[in-house]
Every structure is written in C-alpha cells, then in structure tokens.
Recover the amino acids of this structure.
C-alpha cells in the first residue's frame, strides 16, 4: 500500500531532551487526500507536522514526498524548509504585520522570482478563492481573525505547493466562525485538490473535514482510519474516550462467536452481566477489555426487555428538545443515555438498560 | 487503511546525521556565538591570569604569586581607596534610590501638576555624562571658585563657603542625582502597570491612602526597587569620572582612580591594576548575579503586563510640594549644571563669578575648530573619534545584538543558553574593569593604540544593552512569523532580512541610539585604552580639565552635552515614551 502514498513518513522519532515526543511512528497519505492528526496537547501531532515541514529536525526516520526523500536521517538528508515546496497555515496565522494582504500573498512568488504580471494574476486568483478580493490593499493588522485565516491560506497555496500543512488553524476563532471555516477550508482544499495534513485537538473538526484521521497519544499512533470507522469502531479505550462520548467500563472477554463477534462480561455492585458485542482486532477469550458503547446506542425503558438484565435508577434527565440526556445509575456505574424525548424518563424512576449488540464494542484497555 | 497502526517501537540510538547540521542558520549563529564568547571571555581570563603575576622590584620580570591581592587589602593607599569606593557606592545607592523611587511615584501615581511635562526632564541625566556633571558641580560648589558659594557671598554676605563638593559627599551627591533615573526607570514601569485592584482591595479593608501606599504599593514594587538599587551600586563602584574630578585630587582616591593610575602613566603596573580590577569585578558580578537570578525573576509576579490605568492619588495642597520637589531635582541635575558650564565656558578665565563684559566664544574655537592650527588636538580628535566610534560601534553592536537575540529566543540547546549567559556577564563588570582586561589582552597586538581596541572594548561591554532592546520585542513577536516565511520558500538569511529585521525595526533604532549615546559619553573604558591620537570626547574633557583650564573644559563639556541632548530628542521620537522603562 505504501507505494501509492504521496507522502510517506517512516519510523519518525523526535526527542525533546529526554522526552520522546514522537515515538517511531509511520503513516502515509495518498495524493489529494485530507489527513488529520488528532490528539490531546503533547501527543506529538504538531511535532510530527513540524518535522514534515522541515522546521524541526527529527532524530531518526524518513519522510518522503512523491519519490523524493525530504528527510532521511540515516542518509543524512534534511532538506531546508524553504526547499521543500510545502505550504503551511499556522495557529497564529502569522500574517506579517509590516505588509498588506497583497504583499503577504505575493511574498512566496517574489521569493521564486516570478514575473510581476504572473504574480499579480496568481495573487488575485488566490484571494478570489479564499474570498478576500476586496481586502487586497488592507493592512494585515486591519483584518479580523477569520480574514487573517483566509489570507494565511491564500499565502500558503498561492505557490501551488506539493503539500499543505495546517497547524490548529481554527483554534483561535470563536465557535461560530470555527464551524463556518471548517466547511470553507474543506471546500477550498477539495477545489484545489491539494494533499493536506491537518493538526487539531478538536475531534469534531477532524470528523467533519478529514478523509483519514490518525489519532495520536504520547507520541504514538492509537488508531487510523476514516472518520466513520474511527467514530463507530474505536479499537481501544483511549480512542473511544477521546472521540465523541462513550460509556466505558472494565470487563473481560468470555466468549468468541467468530466473525468479530463475542461476549463481554462486566460486573458492577455484585451483579455480573454478559453482553454480546463486537470484538476489536486482536482481542481473544479471557482478555481484559473495555466495554464501549455510545449514549445514542443505549436504550432505557420502564418495561423489562429480553436478554441481559441491567436494572438502574435515573439520576439525571435533561431535556434537550430532540432528545433526553440521561444518567442511569447501575451499581457504581452511570450509564450515559440519549433517550428519545417522548420517553419522558424522570429522576428516581427504575429503568431497564439495554444495548444494541451491533454497536456494542469490546475495545482494548 | 493506508497506515501501519502498530508502528514498531525502535529503541536504537538515533543516527546523528551530522551533515544535516550545516545550514545557513547554524553556520552564521555559531560563528557569531564564538566571536562573542571570545570577545567576552578573553579579557576576563587575561585579567585573572595577570592578577596573579607579580612585578619584581626592578619592574622587568614577573613571577606567580598573591602579592598583588595582599597589596590591595593591606597596602595603605589601595585599602583606603577600597573603603572610599564602598562608602561612595553605598551613599550613592541610598540617595539615588530615594530620589528615583519618590520621583517615579510622584510622576506615575499622584496628581502632581505638570508631571507629564516633567518626566522627560527627570530622565535627562540618564543620557548625560556624570563626569561632565562633576565638572559642573565643581564649578558650582567649590569652596573658592564655586558659583553658588560666590552668589551666597555677594547676595547674603555669607563669608564662609556654603557648599563644598570636593570630597566624598560631593561624589555621592553628583553620582546620586545622575543615577537616580536608573532606579526611576526600573520602578516607574511597575508602578504604572500595577493592577489597581490590589490597592483597591486594601482600601476596602479600611487602610488609608498613606497606609495603602506604604503597605501595598511600595512592597509590590520592592523587587524593582532592589534591582534598580543594585544596578546603581554596581555602576557607582565602576564610576571613574566623578571621583576623579571631585575627590581624588583632594586625597580621596577610589579603586577606579587607582586602577587608572596603574594602567597609564609613570606608576603603571598592569598586574596590580588587574588585581584591583578583579576585586571590583568579583563584587559587582556577584551583585549582578543576585539581581539577575533572585530579584529580577520576582519582579513581575504581582505586576501583570496588562494595560491598567493605575489609581492616581490626590495629594491636595501637597501636590505643589511634590511639584516643587520635582522641579528642584531637574534644577540640580540638569538646569543648574548646564547653565553653570555655559557661563564658565564663555569666560577666558573663570574666577567664580560671571563678568558680563568679558564673555567670549574663544574657548569654543579652541576645542571645536579642528581646522584651526591653534585648536587643541586632544579635544578636536576626541570629537571626531567619538562620532566614528559611536556610529561604528552602535552599528556593529546592533548587528551582533540581532543575531545573539535570535539565537537566544529562536534556537534551542547549549548555544542559546551560553549566549544568554554571555549577554549578562559584561553587565556585571564595570567598564574600567573590562577595559583593564582588554588592555592586558591586546597590549602586545597591533590593535593596541588604535581606535579598534576602543571599539572592541565598547562593543564587548555594551552590546548587551542593545540585545535587551531587541530581545524584548523578539519575545513579543511570534516565531511563526519567521517560520511561515521559511515555508513560503525564503532562506534563513532572506527571512532575517525581509521579515525578522523589519519587525524588530523600532527596537533596533532605539537600541542603536541608546548605544550611540552611551558611546558618545563613554569615559571609563576610553581612559584606559586611549593613546595620543585616539582620544575620545570624554577623554578630551579629561585632558582639558587636567592640562588646560576650566573654561575650555566647560566648552567641550557643553558641546558633548548638546550632542547628547539632540540624541535624547531623537530617541524619544523614535522609541516612544515608554521605551526605556524596564
């Protein structure tokens, strides 16, 4: 598979002092795709991006764009960032305050000694794509956050780089603008068809924008895959917890039904319950595991249901319009339940909890 | 799936990839780092070595020993100089701190009338030469020729001399009023940026105005006050001009005046001079270390960087007292000295009182008209040399400052930490100490007795001042602005030229002018390193004071002062009002 990848990172290692910030990770991305490195702060995602950009020098590993290695510590290659032909949008936008918008966007083209007429055409085109045509003569300091963001994007793509890197570009915007820019960024990326790597700690951003997501923690890759797969089939506790909301509780695999299905046993307050579930890759009978199920796949009803019996008490019920956000106490454990609003579950009521076996997962600890 | 989920954990020692080290950035910063390290360390190492070499009785051979240090602590003259230095530094620190803190408080936190107009005048002594101040006060308040004493005599009929500055008190007075702005600058920023809610909450508990000021406001700025006081102590310990003019001729030598006699003249003994410099240097470096490591880090813990509008205290009728106090300071520190020098410089012979009928520009012709055969070479050379040194020195020092700041704030690892350290060391050593080190290092090289050795001494001692100007801005400018230029395809040097330096421009200008001012008035390095033909402006003043007469001295002093005042005006235009405040 790796031969098809436009960008390939192999065994990347980066130390900060004694701290192994990036711990020998490998991944790749096919041409034209949008890849997101997702993880909490300190997980090594930005360091990985900086190594790809050439702004940090890794301690080991190889980075290849197309056929050329841009970094190969074994071969003592580390191409300077300016020679890599990569566009980058920074967290602070990094719009130069001593230049106006046009000068900012024209800068990469001037560095490449292009003819003035071509510079003018390309700058106008880039500003049109990001919707800043009217702002061309404005000083950088006169732009709003969202406009600076657009100008930074125009500057990063105006020289038609091989790769576009985004370092948490939306984290400084307010919520509304952020949601709007997500869609906008994705549209522009699709329009110009440029291979992109996007770093964020915001899982919603990652789910909306990416073709492929890599979830990282402590310098390692936890899981990679499409947004749907990451959300619906997390492989371990970390990913399940980090992406969306999940009911997570300790258990043990007690049966294997083949074809990825099995049975997990969970215990709470003296009660043992065995639940049919889908097994994450590599889990076998007798393994410790976590039960992971999203609140929308948990059902709570007043009447007993068939199958394993989990009886609890409603301790919170918040009406959200389209649904009820409930907590059901079962032993020490609280089930998070998104119930249909017509259920009208009230605090103090006894209810029976049941799980949808197709969406009940056993994941690695 | 396009990725390996479980990447193998490799635990080998990372391959070093040494060829990847050779980048524009690494090469240039390493070269500059080595130059700075050599420039700073070489004189200090030479100073240490020479201080342990003892000159034999014939004055030809040396041997290793501690005799120089014994001489410093037990020899009658030098030990007395050591005591005098301690007395002057302590006295000056007390006076300058009292003046600086009170003026800063009056200007920043009270409704003293015209405080905004007075503030620039409060800061003028910071830019002027204390040596010239000493000359002015010598002419104002000497027992026989002092203008103030003679006026007291003719107006009030007081027959005995009212003032006498030709002693240790005079040195403390002049250094105190000239170094007060140093404390002022440390304190006023903290006072202005203090969160007013800290004081408001004291007021709500029932504390009165005065009580709040004494128990909340001043304690909060104590780190700033201590920092300022330490800088004043160290600066005074290394001050040469004022004790040389006021106390040394009357029997009160200091270590600096003693170092001077050991560096030049018939009595020269560089080894003994090195030992004395070591004693001064160890003490001052220790104090600066305390300031840097212990006091400065605490300065901002209660004083945030947010732009607060501080509470102003209504002094009521007392505000006119505060105004009078402020004006009094400006008079004794700026106006009286300049007026006095002006009068003295317009007489052919000065006898302590103004003779209106005999005013003449003769002295100015003697010291300024370099094309005129009868002009005095030491003065005219000094003017030309000082402008060359100030222009060249400030420019070179700022280039160093930019690269050094870049290394400190934009690179990581050993080089960055070492340069941060190197940029503090010169501040810990008074000019005369460092100059002694430069002298013993380079005395046998061709740069001795040229302007180059002066340039080297100036830059080594003062580039940290420029570096601080740059660093404060560089810390506020995001590194991403540089990085995005690299990503746009610009090399390290192009990024420096097109992004980094333009963004630092205000700091570069302000730093350049500050260094220009410092170099234009520099005395204690120049006096050790000059030789015939390489006099500087302040050395010219020294020469006239020693070998010519007071009126000529006053004329050159006025010329220097005018040049410095022009720089002050430009500095305020370029750097803005708050630029100096720490």
């Amino acid at each position: 598979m790796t031969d098809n990848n436009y960008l390939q990172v192999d065994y990347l290692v980066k130390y900060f002092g004694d701290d192994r910030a990036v711990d020998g990770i490998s991944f790749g991305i096919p041409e034209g795709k949008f890849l997101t490195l997702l993880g909490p702060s300190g997980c090594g995602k930005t360091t990985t991006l900086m190594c790809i950009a050439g702004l940090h020098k890794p301690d080991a590993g190889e980075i290849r764009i197309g056929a050329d290695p841009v970094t190969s510590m074994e071969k003592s290659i580390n191409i300077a960032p300016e020679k890599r032909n990569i566009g980058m949008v920074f967290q602070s936008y990094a719009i130069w305050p001593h230049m106006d918008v046009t000068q900012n966007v024209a800068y990469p083209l001037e560095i490449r000694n292009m003819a003035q007429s071509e510079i003018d055409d390309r700058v106008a085109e880039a500003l049109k794509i990001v919707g800043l045509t009217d702002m061309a003569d404005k000083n950088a300091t006169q732009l709003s956050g969202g406009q600076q963001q657009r100008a930074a994007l125009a500057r990063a793509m105006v020289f038609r780089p091989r790769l576009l890197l985004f370092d948490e570009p939306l984290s400084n915007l307010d919520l509304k603008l952020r949601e709007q820019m997500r869609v906008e960024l994705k549209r522009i990326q699709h329009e110009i068809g440029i291979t992109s790597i996007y770093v964020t700690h915001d899982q919603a951003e990652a789910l909306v924008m990416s073709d492929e997501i890599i979830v990282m923690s402590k310098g390692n890759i936890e899981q990679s895959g499409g947004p749907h797969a990451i959300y619906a089939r997390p492989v371990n506790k970390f990913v399940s917890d980090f992406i969306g909301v999940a009911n997570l509780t300790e258990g043990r695999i007690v049966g294997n039904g083949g074809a990825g299905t099995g049975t997990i046993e969970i215990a709470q307050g003296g009660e043992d319950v065995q639940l049919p579930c889908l097994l994450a890759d590599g889990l076998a009978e007798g393994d410790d595991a976590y039960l992971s199920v999203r609140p929308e796949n948990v059902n709570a009803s007043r009447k007993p249901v068939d199958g394993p019996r989990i009886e609890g008490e409603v301790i919170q019920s918040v009406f959200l319009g389209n649904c009820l956000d409930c907590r059901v106490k079962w032993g020490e454990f609280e089930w998070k339940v998104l119930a249909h609003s017509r259920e009208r579950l009230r605090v103090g009521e006894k209810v029976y909890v049941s799980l949808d076996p197709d969406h009940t997962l056993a994941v690695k600890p | 799936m396009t990725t390996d989920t479980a990447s193998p954990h490799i635990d080998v020692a990372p391959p070093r990839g040494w060829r990847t080290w050779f980048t524009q950035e690494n090469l240039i910063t390493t070269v500059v780092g080595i130059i700075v390290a050599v420039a700073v360390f070489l004189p200090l190492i030479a100073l240490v070595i020479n201080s342990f070499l003892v000159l034999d009785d014939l004055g030809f051979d040396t041997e290793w020993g501690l005799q120089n240090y014994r001489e410093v602590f037990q020899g009658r003259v030098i030990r007395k100089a050591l005591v005098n230095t301690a007395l002057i530094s302590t006295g000056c620190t007390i006076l300058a701190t009292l003046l600086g803190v009170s003026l800063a408080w009056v200007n920043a936190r009270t409704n003293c009338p015209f405080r905004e107009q007075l503030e620039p005048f409060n800061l003028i002594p910071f830019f002027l030469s204390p040596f010239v101040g000493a000359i002015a006060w010598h002419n104002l308040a000497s027992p026989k020729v002092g203008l103030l004493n003679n006026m007291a005599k003719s107006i009030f009929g007081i027959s005995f001399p009212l003032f006498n500055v030709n002693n240790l008190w005079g040195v403390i007075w002049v250094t105190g009023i000239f170094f007060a702005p140093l404390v002022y600058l440390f304190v006023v920023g903290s006072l202005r940026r203090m969160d007013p809610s800290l004081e408001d909450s004291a007021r709500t508990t029932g504390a009165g105005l005065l009580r709040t000021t004494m128990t909340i406001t001043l304690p909060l700025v104590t780190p700033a006050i201590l920092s300022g006081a330490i800088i004043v102590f160290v600066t005074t310990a290394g001050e040469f001009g004022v004790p040389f003019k006021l106390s040394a001729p009357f029997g009160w030598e200091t270590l600096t005046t003693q170092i001077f006699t050991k560096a030049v003249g018939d009595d020269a003994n560089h080894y003994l001079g090195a030992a004395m410099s070591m004693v001064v240097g160890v003490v001052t470096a220790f104090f600066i270390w305390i300031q840097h490591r212990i006091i400065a880090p605490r300065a901002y813990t209660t004083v945030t960087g947010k732009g607060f509008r501080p509470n102003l205290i209504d002094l009521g009728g007392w505000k006119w007292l505060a105004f009078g106090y402020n004006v009094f300071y400006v008079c004794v520190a700026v106006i009286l000295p300049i007026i006095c020098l002006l009068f003295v410089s317009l007489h052919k012979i000065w006898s302590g009182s103004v003779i209106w009928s005999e005013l003449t520009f003769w002295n100015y012709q003697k010291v300024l008209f370099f094309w005129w055969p009868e002009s005095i070479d030491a003065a005219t050379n000094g003017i030309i040399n000082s402008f060359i040194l100030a222009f060249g020195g400030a420019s070179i020092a700022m280039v160093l400052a930019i690269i050094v700041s870049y290394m400190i704030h934009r690179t990581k690892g050993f080089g960055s930490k070492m340069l941060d350290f190197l940029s503090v060391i010169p501040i810990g050593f008074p000019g005369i100490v460092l100059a002694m080190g430069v002298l013993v290092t380079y005395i046998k090289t061709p740069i001795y007795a040229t302007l180059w050795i002066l340039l080297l001494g100036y830059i080594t001692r003062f580039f940290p001042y420029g570096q601080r100007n740059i660093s404060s801005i560089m810390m506020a400018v995001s590194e991403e602005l540089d990085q995005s230029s690299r990503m746009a395809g610009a090399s390290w040097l192009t990024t420096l030229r097109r992004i980094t330096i333009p963004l630092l421009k205000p700091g570069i200008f302000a730093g350049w002018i500050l260094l220009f001012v410092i170099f234009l008035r520099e005395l204690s390095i120049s006096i050790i390193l000059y030789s015939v033909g390489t006099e500087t402006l302040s050395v010219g003043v020294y020469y006239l004071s020693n070998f010519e007469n007071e009126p000529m001295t006053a004329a050159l002093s006025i010329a220097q002062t005018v040049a410095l005042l022009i720089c002050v005006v430009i500095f305020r235009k370029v750097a803005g009002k708050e630029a100096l405040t720490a």
